[in-house]
Structure formats: C-alpha cells, structure tokens
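Re: weekly structure request thread

Next one in the queue (382 aa):
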Amino acid sequence: MDNNKTKYHAKKETYVDYSMVFVVLFLLVFGLVMLYSTSSYDGRLKYDDSAYYLKHQLLPTGLGIGLMMVVSRIPYHFYKKVSTLAYVFAITMILLVKSPLGMEINNARRWIKIFGVSIQPAEAAKLAMIVVLASFISKLGKGILNPRAFWVVMGIPIPVCLLVWRVTKNLSTAIIIFGIAFLMLFVATPGYRKFIAIVAAGFAAAAGVVALVVRAGYHSEMNFRFGRILAWLDPEAYVNDKGYQTLQSLYAIGSGGLFGKGLGESMQKLGFIPEAQNDMIFSIICEELGIVGAIAVMIMFIILIYRMMVIAQNAPDMYGALLVIGVLAHISLQVILNIAVVTNTIPNTGITLPFISYGGTAVLFLLTEIGIVFNVARHIEM
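Done, posted below.
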C-alpha cells in the first residue's frame, strides 16, 4: 500500500495552462510586429533607424520572458512575507520621480533613471498593490465582512493613488490602481450594496466634473485644466489642440474598413497620430488589419482573461486566487480603457494596450505578473 502511494506521488503532474502560454506569447510577438509597423516612420524620422523602437522593446521583452519563467518557479506565498516592503518600495519609487533621479519624456515627468535604465514607478505600484491587497484580504478572511475592516482595505490604495496622481501627474494610472483594488475587494466580499454605492458615487462625481467643465465656458481656467473632457465631447471643436489625436485615431479606424489596408500600409502613422506606438496603437491595428483584425486581438485578450478566471477558481487558497484576480483586473482594465479611449468612448488618457504598446517597464512588470499567475497554476492539484 505504501509503495502504491509512493508511486502515486512520484507521478503527480504539475498543471501548466498551455493555452494561456500560447496567448501571452502570441500577444508579445504580435505586439512586436505591430510596434515595428507603427513606429518605423517615426523611428526613421527622429533617429534615422526604422527599427529604433523595436530594438528598444526587444530587450525588455526578452528580459520579461526570462523573469516570467523565474517568477513562475517561486512559490507565491513568498510574496506574503514581503508585502509591506513592496508597499513601502512602491511609494519610495514614486517619490524618487521628484528627485535628481527623475527624468522627463515628452513633457511628462514620470520616470526615474537608475544605472542608465529608465523605470516607470507607477508600473511597479500596480504589482505592489496586487501583492499587498491579496496578503491583507487573505489575512482578514471572514473579518472582511466587518464594515470597518472593509473601509480600511478600501483605503490602502488611496495614498499610492494620490501620489501617482500628484507626483507623476498620471491620473489614468491612479484610476487603474484603485480599480484593481476595487475589483479584488469585490471578488473577496459577499454582497453588492457597498460596491453599487461606490460606483454610483464615482459616476455622480464624473458627471459633476463634466457639467462644471461645460458650464465654465471655453476660455476659462477650468476648461484649460480639463480640456480633454471638452475635446471628448466635441473633438472637432479642438481639432488643432486636444481633439487632434482623437480625430486622427477615428480616421484610422474608419479607413481600415472590414479587412484593413494591409500590414504596414497605414497612412495615419505617417506623422498624423503623435506617438502612435504608445496609447493609440490599437487604431493602427484597426487601420491595417481592419475590424476583423481588431476583433481577433480582443478575442485573444478575452481568452487570456478567461484562462486567468479558471486558474483563480481552482487556486489552492484564497491568497493565490486573489493574486490572479489582481492580475486579471489589471490587464482587463487597461484593455477596456485603452480601446475606449481610442474609440472616443471616454476622454483621452495615457493608457497603454498590454503587451502591444511601446514601453519596456510595462512589459517587464506585466510578464512578472503573468509569472505569478503561472506559479499559482502550478500549485493546482491535478
């Protein structure tokens, strides 16, 4: 009997979600192809090298894949021990933006430079928030049902969100960090009343801001500060200012039609959409690959999110499930908000498309998060 048990344990298999591996690798390769297609004109114009952006994305992508493989082997309970340190580290990194290490790119001071490498602290803050909240909520257990405990947890991301907003002037990232916390808490807490109240208050506040901006008049200081809202409501009225990028993005989407103009055949990337390889790369996908290509990309993200849901549902414990839910929330929020911005469904904000938009720090931390998901999956009993 003992020999049979030994044989059984020896044959125990490790769960690997191969469909998720395929989707992640597909998105990375597709992202590199679209990055080259989108940025080749800009790279040749600015740096006399059509592959400039591709070359700068290849290194962090390769490092990210290696990091993903290493992290997938580190038992995920290790992050419980360093959760407080991660929270402090994230805040420190954000504050360093105001130090001599801080650097400005495209009139935005959101990066720090260490040993010649530029890092965006806000990306580290997203991962830190996932680890911290998963640890805190799992420790509380059923204690999260206590209203006081609920609001304490809801308050944990607020200092980080405020710092990201005020120090780096990046409101969209602050919203994503709070959204990650909100969705993790939503999954961990039974009942919907509190969440409905929070969402209703958020919509009411947003509607109030829009109403104030519109009422203030086109030439007021408020409209200058909230010009993106006015450009969202009427982009043609701001065609020479904040509405320009949105209009060019819509032109790209409309001209792509059903099957697109063909890979590399975009016209809008030829200087019409500023920094098209960043926030607006989805519009170039629509122009070159058409609605069919855009839907195919969205389906790949849906599959990725679905596979993470399956892993979360089968995770060995609440902590592992919350880690996966945090990563799921991060990716799904960014995909939804990026596509919403490109299609002018919401005001223009600086939100990138995961795995596809240009950005070394973003892809490094995204692949680290995917590595954590794979590690949770490895602990699922077959």
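The longest strand covers residues 108-114. Confidence is low (pLDDT under 50) at residues 5-10.
Next request, please.
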